[in-house]
Design a protein that fits this description.
Layout lengths: L3 E5 L3 H13 L3 E5 L2 H11 L3 E5 L7 H10 L8 E5 L4 H9 L4 E4 L4 H13 L10
Parallel strand pairs: 1-2, 1-3, 3-4, 4-5
Helix pairs in contact: 1-5, 2-3
């Protein structure tokens, strides 16, 4: 079975990089340029994993993650947060993100692929995320 990965990122270049890497590896890839579109796609398409930019205008990555974790249909989808920040904000995001993994920018395509593969290999656990 081919896994579906939803990429939520406001940067077109990041969407394209993820699309190329993941499609080449055999994944079905869905793209969203903002948090609201990403949430809508997560609800309707039920992806196997989500690649989520931490810093986006409007609904940022943590806002999107919070909504995902609060809804029954999306609460258990594994998430890989992408962030350029290795400082306190990223560490706080990790603590609040529940089961989300963190991938720091810049990264190499094999790191992205490995991160998604690791997410899909983990057992799914019920998650509750509070604001």
């Amino acid at each position: 079975m081919r896994h579906t990965v939803l990429v939520i990122d406001d940067q077109w270049s990041m969407q394209e990089l993820a699309r190329i890497v993941l499609q080449t590896a055999g994944f079905r890839v869905l793209l969203a340029g903002d948090g609201a579109t990403g949430l809508s796609l997560a609800r309707t398409e039920h992806p196997d994993a989500i690649l989520l930019d931490l810093r986006m205008p409007g609904l940022d990555g943590l806002d999107v993650l919070r909504v995902l974790r609060q809804q029954a249909g999306t609460a258990e989808i594994p998430v890989l947060l992408i962030t350029p920040d290795a400082g306190e904000e990223a560490q706080a995001a990790e603590r609040r993100a529940g089961t989300a993994e963190i991938l720091r920018k810049p990264f190499h395509p094999p790191e992205l692929l490995r991160g998604v593969q690791n997410l899909l290999a983990r057992p799914t656990l019920p998650v509750a995320m509070t604001g």
